C-alpha cells in the first residue's frame, strides 16, 4: 500500500525521504518518487519499480534542499509506471502532491479542470489534486488546500509542497492514516510511524478531517474547516530494532519464529496468576451487557478473516452464541441484520484495512457494539471500536501474515473464555483446563518450529507443482483455508482448501497422479472420517502429507509423509497446526526463488476498497 514521507528542516531532505520510504517498503509498492524544493525550484525524481531505481537516479542527479515529500505507490488508478508515480504536479510544476487513498470523483474534477485549460500527464486521481490546488491558489497554500479538499470525495491522506511557499508543508487526513513527527528545528510527515522513527519519537496522530501545517520550527493542527486543534503529543516507545530481521533471512521466517513469544505476550496479564480465570479489563461491557448478547458477527479480511473462522467455532463452542464470520468487503454492502444485542468483532492486524473499517462503521451505524482485535494501538480500527483487544505480536513486516493470525486466535480464546465465565457456560474446572492448555502452547509451538527441516523437505517437493489441495474438517478446515492462502500468496502455487467431506461432490475430479494434498487430521472426533477422505485421494494418486496429533501416529499408514504436532485440546489445535503450513509456504516460496517478504501484486496494508 502507498506510503508518504515529508521533511522540513535544515538537513538535506533527499536522504531523509529515502530512508523513510525504505521503512515503508513493507507496505508494498510498485513505484516511488520524491519532490524537493531546490535552488532551481521544485524538482521531482520518480521511477517505476523498487526504491533502488529511484535511489540510483538520485545518486546520478541529486536533489539538494531541506524540504521535500516522498511516496511509495501501490497502483490503483493507472498501471505502475514512471508517469503514474507520485509526486504529481500541476502543469506549472509549482504544486506537488503525494497521496494515499482514492479520490472517487476525480474524473468529474478532471473534466472540469480540462475545460479550464489544465492538461494532465498521468492516469491517476492524484494528479487531479495538484491541479485543483493550483486552480484554487490565491497566495495562501493552506486555504487553497482547504478549498480543494472541499471538492474532493473519497478517502485520502495527502502531503503538499508548493514552490510559492517553500517554508511550509501541508498534510491532510481523511480516512487514510497520517502522522506528524516533531523534531528540533525540523518536522516530519509519515503515513506510518516507522517512516520517521529514526528521527523522532514524538508524534501527533491526525484524525479524519484534520490537517497539519508544518514549518521547520512549528506544527499547527486544524480541522479541514480551519479550526485550530490542541493535541497531546504521543511518545512512541516502540523500538524499530525489534522490527528488523534479527538474523533471519526474511521477516516472514523471523515472525514465524516469534510466535511462541507473541502467544505469551498476548496472554500476558490477561490470565489470573492462579490460572483460574481470564481478566479482560479492556472490555468495558458490563456483565449484564455480555449476558444480553444474542449473536456475534466477525468481520475481517484475508488472514484475519481466517482467524475469524476459527474464532466463530471457538465462541460457539465455549459460549453457545451463534456467530457468523464474513469478509469485510461483503459485509459492508449486504445490509447485515444487527440488533442492539449484536456484538461485532472486527479483526485486523494493521487496523487500517479499508473494508474491515467500513464493515465496522456500518455495524456501528446500525447500532452494534464493536470489539476490535488488532495489532496496532492507535490504528483506525482500534480508535473506532468500543473496546480493543490488542494482540501483542509486535510489528509484522512480511506481507504474509503469520504471528498476527496466531495471536488473533489467542485473542479469540481469551475473549471466548471470558464470555463463558460471565455467562456461566463453562464450569470453573473446564476454564482451568483450557487455561492450563493455553499456557502450554508457547512451548509446544517452539517444538513445531524445531521440525522445520522436515517441512522444508516437503515444501521443496511441493514447489515443483502448480496445483495442490489442503483438506480438513471443522477447525482443521478453517486452518486449511489459511494454509492455502499462505501458500498461494508467496509461492504462487495454486491451491484450494476443501472440507475433507466435500471433495467427493466435485473436486475429487481434480485429483490426479502425484498431486500434493495436505490433510489435517487433528480433531479426535473427526479423525476416522478424515482418514476415509485421505484414502479417497490416495486411491486417486495424490501424494499426501498428513498433519496429526502426536498420539495419532498410526496415520502414517494412510499417508506418504506424516508430521505430528504436540497434543493440545482440540479447540486450541489451530494455534499449532497452522505453523507447519506457514513454514511450508515459506520454504516453497524460497525454493521457487520468490521475493518471500514482498510477494508480487500484494500490499501489507490495504487501505483502499
Ligand atoms: C495474508 C494477509 C492479508 C491480510 C488482510 C487483512 O497473509 O496478510 O490477507 O490478512 O489484508 O489485513 P489486516 O489484518 O491488516 O486487516
UniProtKB/TrEMBL annotation:
Keywords: Aminotransferase, Cytoplasm, Glutamine amidotransferase, Repeat, Transferase. InterPro entries: GATase_2_dom (IPR017932), GFAT (IPR005855), GFAT_N (IPR047084), GlmS/AgaS_SIS (IPR035466), GlmS/FrlB_SIS (IPR035490), Ntn_hydrolases_N (IPR029055), SIS_dom (IPR001347), SIS_dom_sf (IPR046348). Its EC number is 2.6.1.16. CDD domains: GFAT, SIS_GlmS_GlmD_1, SIS_GlmS_GlmD_2. It comes from the Bacteria. Residues 286-425, 458-599 form the SIS domain. It catalyses: D-fructose 6-phosphate + L-glutamine = D-glucosamine 6-phosphate + L-glutamate. It is found in: Cytoplasm. Its main location: cytoplasm. One of its GO terms (molecular function) is glutamine-fructose-6-phosphate transaminase (isomerizing) activity. Residues 2-217 form the Glutamine amidotransferase type-2 domain. The active site is at 2 (nucleophile), 604 (for fru-6p isomerization activity). Pfam families: GATase_6, SIS. PANTHER family: GLUCOSAMINE--FRUCTOSE-6-PHOSPHATE AMINOTRANSFERASE, ISOMERIZING, GLUTAMINE--FRUCTOSE-6-PHOSPHATE TRANSAMINASE (ISOMERIZING). Homodimer. Catalyzes the first step in hexosamine metabolism, converting fructose-6P into glucosamine-6P using glutamine as a nitrogen source. This is Glutamine--fructose-6-phosphate aminotransferase [isomerizing].
